[in-house]
Amino acid sequence: MKQLDDFYLNQEEPIKGIFLALKEIILKQNQDISNTLKYGMPFFSYKGKMFCYLWIHKKLKKPYIGIVEGKHFDEDFLIQENRSRMKIMMFDSNEDLPLQQIEAIIQKAINLYKTGIVKV
What we know:
Blueprint: H1 2-9, H2 15-27, E1 33-38, E2 41-46, E3 49-56, E4 63-67, E5 87-90, H3 99-114
């Protein structure tokens, strides 16, 4: 757990604050969500199955939530870029986090597993 905590604490502001807020928002969505460090980034799992992660866009230097099964989503604010499976929800550090939008996407991602669209 120390490595995971260090990941968050070693980020520079405002990324640090955004990541810490996103972590709390995501973990509050369901009691079966856990947070671990994989591939050097914070991943969130639902019943042991990875469903989203936090990272910073290399070119734009903006924080984002990566949705592992994003290919199942049609929302226009999700970005695919060159990914075949994942989509990202990027955030502007000068704006408030869109809480309702984040919660809706996290719930939709969890529902992929709950409904069996994606096997747990």
